[in-house]
Each structure stands twice: as C-alpha cells, then as structure tokens.
Amino acid sequence: MLSKNVVITDEAAGKHVELPVIRGTEGEPTLDIKAVPSTLGYFTYDPGYAATASCTSEITFIDGNKGILRYRGYPIEQLAERSTFVEVAYLLLFGELPIEEQLNQFRDELTYHTMIHERLNHFISGFHYDAHPMAMMAGVVGSLAAFYHNRLDMENPEERVLSAKRMIAKMPTIAAACYRHHMGWPIAYPRNRLRFCERFLDMMFSVPSEQYMVSEVAARALDLLFILHADHEQNASTSTVRLVGSTGANPYACVAAGISALWGPAHGGANEAVLAMLDEIGSVGNVPHFIDRAKDKNDPFRLMGFGHRVYKNYDPRAAIIRQACYEVLDELGKDDPMMDLAMELERIALEDDFFVEKKLYPNVDFYSGIIYKALGIPVSMFTVMFAIARTVGWVSQWIEQSETPTKIGRPRQVYRGPQERKYKALHRRG
Ligand code: ACO
Questions:
Q1: pLDDT digits (tens, 9 = 90+) for 300-334
Q2: Which of 267, 321, 337, 342 has an alpha carbon 20 to 30 Å from 416's alpha carbon atom?
Q3: 385 near 377, Cβ under 8 Å?
Q4: Of the residues 353, 360, 383, which should be mutated to test ligand 1's pocket, given the most ligand atoms within 8 Å of the CB?
Q5: Distance (Å, rounded) from C-alpha 224 to C-alpha 385?
Q6: Residue 306 has what DSSP assignment?
Q7: CA-to-CA distance for 127 and 131, rounded, in angstroms?
Q8: Closest by Cα among 298, 173, 146, 317 to 231
Q9: H-helix or E-strand spanning residue 6
C-alpha cells in the first residue's frame, strides 16, 4: 500500500518529518499526517475536512472530476439500469453481488423484519400532527435502541448484520407510519407479499375504505431513486454515523444521528429545498433574476440542488435522474411545469461564467423531487425518502468500521478565545 514518503521540513525549527503516502486501489494519493504533531509540534487545520480522508473504505468510490460513482466497483449507471435496490443493499453490505439463492434469502430476511413493535406506533402517535417527518424519524429510529439495546452484542458479527437488516427493513414502515400520523390515517401494516418499494407505497397510500393498487411504474421509479441514494462514501451524514459509531454507540443511535445530519438543507434536505426554490422562482422568465441572486455574495440565496463538495463535474446520479424524470412523467401521464423550469435553470446556470468557473453542476437532489412529486410523495417526506435509501449505506459503513480497528473520532481546534484570566466577583464586573 505505501509507495513513497513525502518530507515536510520546518526550516525555522530545523525539524523535518517523513510522511507515508497511502494509496488506495483508486483515487488520489493521501498523506498520512499522524506523525506531524509529535514530530513538528503542529496540528493540521482543515475546516469542513475538505482535504482529509477520515478512514479507509472498500465500499464506494467517487471520482469527482470525472463524475464517476461506483458501489463496490460497479458503475452506478449499470446498477441503475440492471439491478434492484434490494440487490444493491446486499452488494453494499456484503461486498459482492448475490447469487440467486443469497438474494432470495436476503429478501426473505428483510421481509421478516418489516414490522415494528406496536409500542413504537404509540410513540409515533404522541407527536403533534404537523411534526416534520424528519424530526419524527430521528426520534423514532433512535428509540429502536430501547427495544434492542440489551440484545445487541456489537462484538458479534452476526448480531451486527442482524441490526443492519432490521434497520433497512423497518425504515420504510416507520417512514410510512410518520406520514400516516400526519394525515390522520390508521397505521398500515407491511404487506409482506409485496416487494420492497411496492410495500412502501402500499403502506404510504392505501386506505381502509378503498382498494389500493400499487403502480408498477411508481415502484420502479422509487427503486431507481433508492439505488442512486444508497451510499456516497464519507458524506456528512455517513461521517456522522461513523463518528458516533467510533464511540461504541449502538447502531440505532448512529443511524438516528445520521438522519439528523441528513436533514440539513446543505445535505439531504436540499431535495425539499429545491422544490421550495422552484416554487419561489415560479416561471421561466424569473430564472435570470434568481441566477443573479445566487451569484451575489451579499445575498444568502444559493441554487439548491447545485454544487457538490466532491463532484466538480455533472453528478452522475443527477444525469440518471434527469433522464428518469422524462420517462416517469411520460409513463404516469403527468406534465409538470416544474420540469421545464428546472431544465431552464440548469441550462442558464451551466452557460454562466460564475457556475462554470466554480464547477457548479446539478447534484442528485436537483431532479429527484420532481419524480417524488409525480409519485404523490409530499414535499416534507422527500428527505425521508433519502434516509430510507441511505440507511443501507449508513449500516454498511457502520459494519465496515466495526470490523476495523478504530480510534474514537476526536478532532482538535485552533483556540481563539481569551487567554488565562482571573475570576471576578459579581459586584466587580462590568
Ligand atoms: N449556488 C451558488 N453558489 C454556490 C453554490 C450554489 N448552490 N454552491 C457553491 N457555491 C459557491 C460558493 O458561494 C463558493 O463561492 P466562493 O468560492 O466565491 O466563496 C463556492 O461556490 C464553493 O462553495 P462552498 O460552499 O465552499 O463549497 P462546499 O464544497 O463547501 O459546499 C455544497 C458544497 C454544500 C453542496 C454547496 O455547493 C451548496 O450549498 N449547494 C446547495 C445545497 C445543495 O444542493 N446541497 C446538496 C448537496 S448533495 C447531497 O448532500 C446529497
């Protein structure tokens, strides 16, 4: 793995350190800086971790300059075209595509764990009817630890995998229950004869008074979106899961923390924010005004669904979703003016020097909301959809971390507060 060292010299102090270069199977060479503080006496400063690899991983590879995304070596385009979400979940968790028998068994196991404890439904019904579903998800998933904590031996690989399967299986049930609570509908229990995405749509939209037929087109579109969202190496929510996991916390607590990180509009919350933005822009004629606002340093407005920390090229997931938008809208017989608006926004932005120079391209969230909307998923549930899919990545990364010797995540800081001073009695202050 180590090919050569890089020498860093502090001439003034007359010290130097040789830093090993770590090479992965692909991607940029990485300097191992662990020895810097002890030999040179410096810490390294990297706010936002833009220059830092926090772990080694064998799960997902991104080349942001070329717009490449691969799960366990398989290009996302091939998985999107030929695989299913459940198969991709198996691949991310276990490292290989399953043979038929393994896939059938895995599907059966996920199906077996779809139910949630009845008390959890009582917990959900305790939320106010208009609670944001992401707030409910973070609370309810965190509370799963209360149901399984004493039965989880995290040193046992089989129990780790069991908890991963439980979470992948229960997440759609919890998500649908949160939505139904908001709607005032009775809980819909999982129908295990249905497939993963069909079952989720059934739990979301079936009502006791009418027969609900799951649309095959909708289930397929959702499956595609779930594949594209399943993992994305060390993004903010996954890094959160790993950071919490590094303390030895249980996986339910780790995933609840991941859900909270995902909710932010700079991360998974962007899919909800994109729709709000398109709504605000209103019509194609207003696009130039909003492009100007996004370029104005004094205006906090940003083009939501644009830009990415790693991709300095078109996000390959956005390219797939954009194409799927046409097909899904066409197959469902829907015509959404938001699609025209989004495309015009993309066209103008991609011709604009500001966006070209900063390499700002549409990301995964730019078009996904248009499909969710066409499937009848309410805007407040968009980030929940992301969380259902990303659970697979979170638990795969958590398992990988659990199988690797890991130090507790504990960054340092550059302290800029007051130096030592004496405590003053209350009457002597001011
Ligand atoms: N609109 C306008 N300007 C932007 C945008 C945007 N969407 N994104 C970045 N920029 C500009 C910044 O103002 C900055 O300009 P400067 O160099 O003149 O200061 C430059 O591009 C670099 O931006 P940073 O915020 O420093 O880049 P960073 O890598 O830290 O952030 C992020 C990436 C958070 C995704 C950012 O592009 C953004 O806020 N995008 C909008 C929110 C969004 O779509 N998030 C979803 C990301 S995908 C995901 O998490 C699933």
A1: 999 999 999 999 999 999 999 999 998 898 898 88
A2: 267
A3: yes
A4: 360
A5: 12
A6: B
A7: 6
A8: 317
A9: strand 2-10
**Tokens for 95?**
């490292």
Closest CA to 230 of 103, 374, 71: 71
Residue with tokens 């001011």: 430
The DSSP code sequence of 13-43 is TTEEEEEEEE--SSS--EE--TTHHHHH---
Task: State the CB neighbour count (10 A cutoff) for residue 125.
Answer: 12
pLDDT of the residue at 3: 55
Cα(226)–Cα(393) distance, integer angstroms: 11
Question: Which of 366, 90, 97, 115 shows the shortest CA–CA distance to 231?
Answer: 90
pLDDT of residue 142: 94
Task: Please name the helix (run of DSSP H) or strand (run of DSSP E) that holds residue 88, with its range, or none.
Answer: helix 85-94
Q: List the catalytic residue out of 202, 232, 267, 315.
A: 267
Reduced to 3 states (helix: H, G, I; strand: E, B; else coil), residue 75 is strand
- pLDDT band for 114, please (50, 70, 90 cuts): very high
Residue 426 gets which letter from DSSP? G
User: What is the biggest distance separating any 2 CA atoms in the chain, rounded to whole angstroms?
Assistant: 81
What are the pocket residues of ligand 1 if the criterion is a CB atom closer than 6 Å to any ligand atom? Answer: 48, 235, 266-268, 270, 294, 302-309, 358, 360, 363-365
Structure token digits, residue 145? 């630890």
Look up residue 414 and give its two tokens.
């550059």
Percent of the chain with pLDDT over 70: 99
Q: How far apart are CA 422 and CA 430, in angstroms?
A: 14
What's the pLDDT at 151? 67
Which residue from 54, 50, 51, 39 is spatially nearest to 7, judged by alpha carbons? 39
User: Per residue in 9-51, pLDDT tens?
Assistant: 999 999 999 999 999 999 999 999 999 999 999 999 999 999 9
pTM (predicted TM-score): 0.95
378-403 pLDDT, tens digit each:
999 999 999 999 999 999 999 999 99
Output the pLDDT for position 335.
Answer: 84
The sign of the torsion formed by the CA atoms of 171, 173, 179, 181 equals: negative
CA quadruple 50, 51, 56, 59: dihedral sign: positive
Rounded-to-integer distance, Cα 163 and Cα 148, Å: 9
Q: What average pLDDT does the structure give for the chain? A: 95
3-state helix, strand, coil in the chain (%, to 5): 55, 5, 40
Question: Would you call 267 a catalytic residue per the annotation?
Answer: yes
Indicate the residue type of 214: V
Q: Say whether 307 sits in a helix, a strand or coil.
A: coil
